[in-house]
Design a protein that fits this description.
By secondary structure, the protein is α/β, with parallel strands linked by helices. Helix content is 16%, strand content 31%. It binds nickel (II) ion (NI) and manganese (II) ion.
Length: 226
């Protein structure tokens, strides 16, 4: 399969069976190079929480492609008014999709959905463990370091996508502890440098990883073949 980094926390993953997006924040993302309309055929969109830099272009892409949006119950309830197909999940739940299983994991963060009229409830923020072709990808969403991450060692994660930008999420120091908890084969840093408040040096993160963990810095639109 191919994992493409689209900037911030947005990823496009394509395997022989499925095409999916995670947190497709493209319009308004100063890092993004690919536009939302580049996605013509898509099966699923995973949304970790209700913040604008994660919901991003979900509604437009889902409407146009017919992709099924997977998110927590509250966000799915919000999306349902737009006439898009959704699959609600919640923290700790696992479901077998046609391509493999998905488990929703906890994240320590907020999830309010910003509307012109104020903030509406977006339930609890989360992350996803997505199984594809027998490999497991963990997208942490936005989160601080949690003790719960120790449970993820049992999932035998192949690739962990972890925020390192600090301020709203883990910084490099805490992301390194998360790696120690999760023990993934490989790790790709995300959620850094998009805005001034989340500046971080991904090379400094990679340099401090334990020897047995492969660190991968993806340029925007860069690919990692798994
Ligand atoms: Ni957030
Ligand atoms: Mn965010």
């Amino acid at each position: 399969m191919n994992i493409q980094f689209l900037g911030h926390s947005a990823f496009y993953i394509e395997s022989e069976q499925v095409k999916l997006l995670i947190d497709p924040f493209l319009s308004g993302n100063p890092q993004a190079k690919t536009r939302a309309d580049a996605f013509k055929e898509l099966d699923y969109i995973f949304v970790t929480h209700g913040h604008g830099d994660h919901i991003g272009d979900t509604i437009e892409i889902a409407k146009r492609t017919g992709a099924v949006v997977v998110s927590n119950f509250e966000i799915v309830n919000y999306f349902s008014q737009f006439g898009i197909q959704c699959h609600p999940m919640h923290i700790g739940g696992r479901f077998s999709f046609d391509f493999g299983t998905v488990k929703m994991t906890p994240a320590l963060h907020g999830s309010g959905i910003q509307m012109d009229s104020g903030m509406i409830c977006g339930g609890s923020p989360g992350g996803f463990v997505i199984e594809l072709e027998g490999q497991k990808i963990y997208h942490a969403g936005d989160t601080g370091l949690t003790m719960d991450m120790q449970l993820l060692v049992r999932e035998a994660i192949d690739v962990a996508l972890l925020p390192i930008g600090g301020n709203f999420t883990m910084d490099i120091e805490d992301a390194l502890i998360a790696v120690d908890f999760i023990k993934p084969q490989s790790v790709i840093p995300m959620h850094y440098d998009t805005f001034e408040m989340i500046k971080a040096d991904p090379q400094a993160f990679i340099d401090q990883l334990p020897q047995e963990v492969k660190g991968i810095i993806l340029d925007v639109d860069g690919n990692f073949i798994l």
